[in-house]
Amino acid sequence: MAAAASSTPMVQDEQGDDQESRLLSGTRQLIFEGRRSGEGCFDRQGSKLVFQSEREPGNPFFQSYLMDLSTGDTHRVSPGFGKTTCAWIHPDDGSVLFASTHADPDARLKQQEELDFRESGETCRYSWDYDEFYDITPAIWREAGSTT
Predict the structure, then answer these.
(1) Structural domain of residue 133, as residue ranges?
(2) Tally of domains in the chain
(3) For the segment 124-135, what is each residue's pLDDT rounded down to a tens digit?
């Protein structure tokens, strides 16, 4: 978002470094596991991060994970199959919501089809894969002390 607010385009300098430090300072990588990771959201206190990552064996799609930023402890809050996206931590009760396709009767078949496609060596351009079976899902985890 900071880059969008800047009138200066993000460019690479002669050493190949981007000029991110002009807009952001004190950055550090938080996620090291998995094939890839995607969007994340912090809780109101800034002590937890919910994010998506591709790291479940046999599932080439993102699942949702919750990280305690003080300890680094991370655990999956989504079912482990199907696709997930857009996780969010409620600011009042700490509950986690995300979109998931785990209720799709063909979820596991779609996983296998994607694994087969990757195994074939073929590639395709990136596109966000909207799936008609995405539905808002409460996480299987609740913050300790939650009243709901």
Answers:
(1) 30-138
(2) 1
(3) 887 777 889 999
